[in-house]
Automatic annotation (TrEMBL):
Family per record: Belongs to the ROK (NagC/XylR) family.
InterPro entries: ATPase_NBD (IPR043129), ROK (IPR000600)
Record protein name field: ROK family protein
Residue spans crossing the bilayer: none
Domain of life: Bacteria
Length: 280
């Protein structure tokens, strides 16, 4: 894997998520809380405050956003941060006078994790966090679709005893917690303490994601599928996911596919956003 060279601390990668935002510059990564009510103004203020705290005027900014991002960087919609619709980061930070590139968060993660694959590789990344993000590359080319929005795996409809739900609503950390009437931090605490209801809900979420990933493996025949996100770390989630993948993938397809965790860990999205911005 090629290391992202960052000799200039003014090169900034930003990962905007459903519960937190990471601002990465040089060797520093700072966290800002977000949440479903987060507005563009709140995010802009948070980014500016963190850059000022570091004493940085950026020379390039890569900004990763959960949701549908237009080719010009404008946010069309975001399921986890709905108030970002219409936001245009390049306009919000125009006074910095630097290159600003906004893209989907899973797309950014794939830029980072797949940058050293063979030119003809088929690969994907699936991030299980607040909700589910995904991006894919087929025969060496990004799978973008008609408007560049392909990969919204979390919006796949799933039949459940309670009716049709989005995959997000079964597998995303925010939704698993909400099904128990608690928040994500309390879900993690209860799971660590061995709470039966919390562990059952987590396993159900992991199994549902594993079924979706088995479908992807059977559909795309990928060389590589990268798995990441904080929800993957909940006790039992990854085990249930991998068990479902094993049970429901075609064996030859699964044998041809390498499954691994994101090598860049929690900063994979921010690093990919910066790498994408630097390549423009």
């Amino acid at each position: 894997m090629t290391t992202l060279e960052q000799p200039d601390s003014r090169q900034v990668g930003i990962d905007i998520g459903g519960t937190k935002m990471l601002v990465m510059a040089g060797g520093d990564t700072l966290r800002v809380d977000t949440g479903p009510e987060a507005t563009p103004a709140l995010l802009v203020r948070g980014i500016r405050e963190q850059l000022a705290r570091l004493g940085i005027t950026p020379s390039v900014m890569g900004i990763a956003i959960p949701g549908l991002v237009e080719a010009d960087g404008r946010v069309r919609m975001s399921g986890v941060l709905p108030k970002l619709a219409g936001w245009h980061p390049a306009t919000a930070f125009a006074d910095y006078g630097c290159t600003i590139h906004a893209l989907n968060d899973a797309e950014a993660a794939l830029v980072e994790e797949a940058q050293d694959l063979p030119d003809d590789a088929t690969a994907g990344i699936v991030m299980a966090g607040t909700a589910i993000g995904a991006a894919f590359r087929v025969d060496g080319k990004p799978l973008r679709g008609a408007r560049g929005w392909a990969g919204e795996l979390g919006f796949m409809p799933v039949v459940t005893p309670q009716g049709v739900k989005r995959l997000d609503e079964i597998t995303g950390g925010r939704f698993i917690a909400a099904s128990l009437g608690i928040d994500g931090a309390e879900l993690a605490r209860r799971a660590q303490q061995g709470d039966a209801a919390a562990l059952a809900a987590i396993r159900e979420g992991g199994q549902a994601l594993g079924l979706a990933l088995a479908g992807l493996i059977n559909l795309l025949n990928p060389h590589l599928l990268v798995l990441g996100g904080g929800t993957m770390q909940l006790p039992g989630y990854a085990d249930a996911m991998r068990d479902a993948i094993q049970r429901h993938s075609l064996p030859p397809m699964l044998e041809a596919c390498t499954l691994r965790e994101a090598r860049s860990g929690a900063t994979v999205v921010a690093m990919g956003a910066l790498r994408a911005a630097l390549s423009r």
